[in-house]
Amino acid sequence: MRIGIVYDLFDDYPWEVGEPPDADAENEPPETVDVLAAAIRRLGHKPVRIGTAYDLLIELPDLRIDCGISIAEGARGRNREAYAPMLFEMGGIPYLGSDPLTLSLSLDKAWTKDLVAAAGVPTPPYRTYAGPEAIDPHDLPGPFPLFVKPRYEGSSKGITAASKVYSLEALRAQVAHLTAAYRQEVIVEPFIEGSEFTVAVIGNNPPEALPVLQRAVEATTGIGLHALEHRGMAPAADLEPAPYVPLTTELEHCLQQLAVRAYEKLQCRDFARLDFRVDRQGNPWFLEINPLPTFAPDGTFAILAELMQQSYVDFLAEIVQRGLRRLGLA
């Protein structure tokens, strides 16, 4: 089969005046596309590099592919991750990954939390604000410290040490900064002091939760190191990781169960990554889900392949094969 790949490279981001420095943080290096293409070839198929969703739009009338896969983030707006899958649907082309509704909904952190909470997955209470004037000091989501982040972004965009606020004055200042810089609402929730974990889920009917990975948190703020060191942000000085906490078999099983429950509630398909915090009493809290995770050779899925003693190309080929099986194309 000919399998089309849609993707956004860092060089593809359409910069505009006044955008924040991490605006392209969700895009990919060429190596991500290379390893995904290698996985497709490993299965005996031909990868067809299409480019961005805008390239797909132009080429769609004459495009000759049997299946598609999109790792493209798009640009601006909460429906941007759904651009390519929607075009695939309009063109009658089967595709791997979640559908446009799931991709758009899961990019909205507030709506996602509402749904997973309805499924019985614990998640911190929250408020959304369009600006500092919307903050009601008598109706905050919880006690300080609170955590402030853009409502419709991923890859830790907008997160710095200042995202963790300890006072009403600091909350108003951070809300004002982020709503202006990212041109969207922010979501504010209590900061969960403790450890951080990520869970990858793959497949369908039933989906499978892979081994849980613990993420380093910064010793002083307790914020995940990956968030403070993400692309586009100035390197923070003297970042030291806090000691890791033991990941017991019971905790791992609990996180995997919650991850699968959220994955199924949001009707994800083929692959996703979910992030959790575990408080100092051992209680897990869902933070967010990414059904369009990076397949970068230094990302979570590559680490899991090494942990499971597989080559990364073979590991990705198995994920692709499961998706093709769902489509009846394996």
Q: What profile does the largest beta sheet have? A: 5 strands, antiparallel
Which whole number gives the mean pLDDT?
97
Number of helical elements? 10
CATH class of the largest domain: Alpha Beta
Order of helix and strand elements from N to C terminus: EHEHEHEHHEEEHEEEEHHEEHH
CATH H-level homologous superfamily name of the largest domain: ATP-grasp fold, B domain
At CATH level 3, the topology of the largest domain is: D-amino Acid Aminotransferase, Chain A, domain 1
Q: What percent of the residues sit in helical stretches (DSSP H or I)?
A: 25-40%
Note poorly predicted spans: none
Tell me the total number of β-strands.
Answer: 13
| Shape field | globular
GO molecular function, one term: D-alanine-D-alanine ligase activity
Protein name: D-alanine-D-alanine ligase
Keywords: ATP-binding, Cell wall biogenesis/degradation, Ligase, Nucleotide-binding
Family: Belongs to the D-alanine--D-alanine ligase family.
